[in-house]
Design brief:
By secondary structure, the chain is mostly helical. It has a single domain, classed as Orthogonal Bundle (Arc Repressor Mutant, subunit A). It contains 3 helices and 3 strands; from the N terminus they run H-E-H-H-E-E. The protein has a 3-stranded antiparallel beta sheet.
Length: about 80
C-alpha cells in the first residue's frame, strides 16, 4: 500500500478565494461573448444555481452590465440596448 505524502506548501483556497476566482472566470466568459443559464454555470463551477445567482448579482453590482435575455439565459448588455 502506497503512503500518501502531503505537499508542505500546498493549501486549500478559502471560500472567499474560491468565489473571487469564480467571479473572475465568469467575467472572462461573459466578456468573451458567452450567454449562459444559471444551471450551466452551476454545473461548470460545481456550485448550486443559488450561488450562481448571487454571483451574477455581485458582478452586476461591480459594474458588469449583464442582462437576462430569456427567462434564464444571461449575457453582457450590447451597446445600444
Amino acid at each position: 500500500m502506497a503512503a500518501i505524502i502531503a505537499e508542505p506548501n500546498v493549501r486549500l483556497m478559502t471560500d472567499v478565494e474560491c468565489r473571487a476566482v469564480r467571479l473572475y472566470k465568469m467575467r472572462l466568459m461573459f466578456l468573451a461573448g458567452g450567454a449562459y443559464t444559471s444551471a450551466e454555470l452551476a454545473e461548470h463551477f460545481n456550485v448550486t444555481p443559488v450561488t450562481i445567482r448571487k454571483d451574477l448579482n455581485a458582478l452586476g453590482r461591480i459594474g458588469l452590465p449583464l442582462i437576462c435575455v430569456t427567462e434564464t439565459r444571461w449575457r453582457l448588455v450590447k451597446e445600444g440596448e
